[in-house]
Model the fold of this input.
Amino acid sequence: MKLGPFRVDRQGLLSPADPARFPQFAVRWRDRLVQARMAQPVLEDHCRGILAVSTKVGRVPSTSGSSAHSRVALLRQMQLLPRRMPPGWQLRLTPDHCVTVETQIALALPISAVALVTHISFFLLSLSPYLDVLDADGIGLTAGSDRI
Done:
């Protein structure tokens, strides 16, 4: 049977209904929008999938609106954090001074809804300490951005 972007088998396991368009969804965690998208690995192994997860964690404050000390501390923390993050996680600074965290999680397809939610929940819980560090160093959230 088909349920939205998923095909559901007799055991209740999910797989993408259309191999050309993979399902995606978003959740809000600690006032940040976390986007997840299922994808097929390059090898197109129909038993393997990828859950690409990304979130904008905030913005580096501009030089005009913050103290130079807090900006320098945040940029220094951004140099140190990737070494402490789990393998495969990436911390990126975009040209508009947004800071994002991205990773890809390997999935066995088809997958149960419980397993899918477990993967995203594990990511969210693992992300929390890094958000604590960045928030303490003054990363700013843009009010009203990334609404779901």
User: Anything to note?
Assistant: The beta strands are 2-3, 6-8, 14-16, 24-29, 32-39, 48-59, 90-93, 98-108. The helical segments are 68-84, 113-136.
